[in-house]
Input
Amino acid sequence: MAEKRKRRLNKGRLISMAILIPITLLWLVPLVWGFVTSFKTDADIDAHLLSFIPREFTLDRYIKLFTDFEQYPVLLWLWNSVYTAALYTILHLVVVSLAAYAFSLLRFKGQNILFTCVLATMMIPTVINLVPMYNMMVAFDWIGSPLALIVPGAAGVFGLFIMRQFFLGIPKSLIESAQVEGAGQFTVFLRIVLPLSSSAFMVAGIFAFLSNWNDYMWPQIIMGAEDIAMMTLPVGLSLMQGSYNYDLGLTMTAAITSAIPVLILFMFTQEKVIEGIATSGMKD
Output
């Protein structure tokens, strides 16, 4: 019996590997190709476009990208993206954690109906909200201001869902014991819920940071194209694609530059992210 079970497990592992390896390659191959292309010369790109090994190695594009500040102020764009994404993530975590606490650990009339309505907004395409959001920014006089990149969307539904599902797994006995000792709701939230939810905060924070970091359409609309110094990294790097010219090597260099900070961030947080996703939805 044990032998049969072992064979089934080995067979399951083989099937999983046969499925996961092609999927992994499907994701990695374009990334590796773009990374290699950023080090090729123009002649090498023209002659060996699909090659994964540069015939001639060059750092000229990276040097140009980080030294030509008048045309490509990449470090300024990087700073704009970092601080707007960081502040957005902090505000997002504050808002969704408080809302998730109310939806998961408090009881009030119409709670489930209200939460269902909030979840239903995930089905609304983002582009539909662009015009009303832009009108709101005009009314607040936030056009061209970093506040327009930080405040809107802070109450993200996906982060709320992740946090709520994690909070539902917190043992009710801990909360009830604290309440018996006289702790209020805010004390319970700060002293019990937050220390037990670091994984959920990491997951929600990573997704919030990535959504703001990778956003292109909204920063382009709200910040405008007049002031190059106010652009975020995705919008600024898009300047490399002109109407009549297209530098593939420089574009790949810009894409890799934009991806490196996110990859580094995920490398240091992947364990917490995986743990948070795996445990979200568990209930006692």
Observations:
- The mean pLDDT is 82.
- Residues 2-37 form the longest helix (36 residues).
- DSSP finds 14 helices and no strands in the chain.
